[in-house]
Amino acid sequence: MPLDAHKLNSLGLPKPPSQTRVVVAMSGGVDSSVVAAMLAEEGYDVIGVTLQLYDHGAALAKKGACCAGLDIHDARRVAETMGFPHYVLDYENVFRDAVIDEFADSYLGGATPVPCIRCNERVKFKDLLETARDLEADCMATGHYIQRKMGAHGAELHSAADAARDQSYFLFSTTAEQLDYLRFPLGHLPSKAETRALAAKYGLSVADKPDSQDICFVPDGNYAAVIEKLRPGSAEPGEIVDVAGNVLGTHNGVLRYTVGQRRGLGIGGLVDPLYVVRLDVDKKQVIVGPKDMLSTRTVPVREINWLGDEPLDSRSEWMVSVKVRSTRPPREAILRPLSATTAEVELLTPEDGVSPGQACVFYQTEGSRILGGGWIWRGI
Predict the structure, then answer these.
(1) Contacts of 169 (CB under 8 A, 6+ apart)
(2) What distance in Å separates the CA atoms of residue 117 and residue 123, rounded to the nearest whole number?
(3) pLDDT at 33 exceeding the cut of 90
(4) What angle (nearest 5°) sits at the alpha carbon of residue 375, between those of residues 369 and 378?
(5) What's the CA gap between 49 and 52, in Å, rounded?
């Protein structure tokens, strides 16, 4: 019997779990595994889907990354344990075109890209979501730590209950249309301990599996090695110079440095520490300076995904809080739209190391709602 029109199941849909098909995006980690197991136990018609995103052979022995090798095997075992179908889709070419190539080109352009955001935006919440619709699923669920709440104007995106696990920085580009279809069953949990306890309760083999640390296609965090492989000849040597142009040393490739970096410059013996303040790819120069040169108040942002109730450009200014790095807390700022997709952000307190290629994510100054975000660039 269908549920009463006003009675919703745990996923917010007006029918019994047994009549509700859910595609669960399974990376092979504990979070998405618990989501799949939880929904299966509640009686939903669960289909697990894992995307093979990069070279399966090279990844077989690599632990701590999603969407390859051992992790595909772990996702399959969870599906067998809980008794629901599981499919592996080869998205290697899509992933390279949509994520890896841009990552390499951005790094070579002196930016500091965040490929996990592009993966969510261009692969998981685009192609995989379309696959879920093709499978006639009523919604798609993931193991991300973020919350979806219903507001006066529809579904809203909110930070996770556990601030230490919140993944809102990596999901700012989720559109309103995608949000209608997505579900995040772990976002309300107070800590990761509850997730692992659920994994143990369901008897999942991944209950004690460590969290992934590195970008999935960058073994051991060695960005330079990956980029050199993708773009042969890109690690050309050059000069390390101060802001006046004085040569202080040499480097073995601009791609090995990021704005804000202090260690590993190889220019010791100085009275005051120096930091990377800029990268000049054309001149093959790493420009260094004192820490105060890293501070900035003005952040140009483009490719904005806006999740507010009113159009972004309906006001000349928005008082918001923003994150310019995933590891930093939101800081108060003024958001000044220049168009529907571009803006200038004025930070009320200067931030160090704001780098092109990173995201700038907007939050309401009160509460947990995410208003969207965009990509930091150098400006005109």
Answers:
(1) 117, 323, 325, 326, 359, 361, 373
(2) 10
(3) yes
(4) 140
(5) 10
Pairing of strands 21-25, 45-52: parallel
Q: Report how far apart, in Å, the C-alpha atoms of 318 and of each of 30, 71, 312, 314, 362 are.
A: 38, 43, 9, 10, 10
Angstrom distances, CA of residue 342 to CA of 109, 111, 308, 312, 376: 21, 18, 15, 9, 10
Spell out the residues 6+ positions from residue 219 whose beta carbon is closer than 8 angstroms to its own. Answer: 62, 65, 225, 226
Structural contact between residues 296 and 355, judged by C-beta atoms closer than 8 angstroms: no
Length of the chain as a residue count: 380
Q: How does pLDDT run across 213-238, given as a tens digit for each residue?
A: 667 788 677 778 888 888 887 788 99
**DSSP assigned state of 181:** H
CB 274 within 8 A of CB 321: no
Q: Which amino acid is at 29?
A: G
pLDDT band at 61 (very low <50, low <70, confident <90, very high): very low
Q: What does the alpha-carbon distance between residue 11 and residue 24 come to, in Å, rounded to a whole number?
A: 13
Contact call for residues 66 and 88 (beta carbons, < 8 A): no
Q: How far from chain centre, in Å, is Cα 378?
A: 21
DSSP assignment of 309-363, as one string?
SS-GGGSS-EEEEEESSTTS--EEEEEEESSSS-EEEEEEEEES---TTSEEEEE
DSSP character at residue 369: B
Taking the model in full, what pTM does it have?
A: 0.89
CB under 8 Å to 218, separation ≥6 — which residues? 226
DSSP of 141-206, one letter per residue? E---SEEEEEETTEEEEEE-SSTTT--GGGGTT--HHHHHHEE-TTTT-S-HHHHHHHHHHTT-TT
**Quick one: CA torsion of 62, 63, 67, 71, rounded to 10 degrees?**
110
Alpha-carbon span 39 to 10, nearest angstrom: 9
In the chain, the amino acid numbered 230 is L
For the annotated catalytic residues, the residue numbers are: 119, 216
SS3 368: coil
- The pair of structure tokens assigned to 102 is 């841009």
User: Distance between CA atoms of 210 and 206, rounded to whole angstroms?
Assistant: 9
Tokens, residue 113: 């890209």
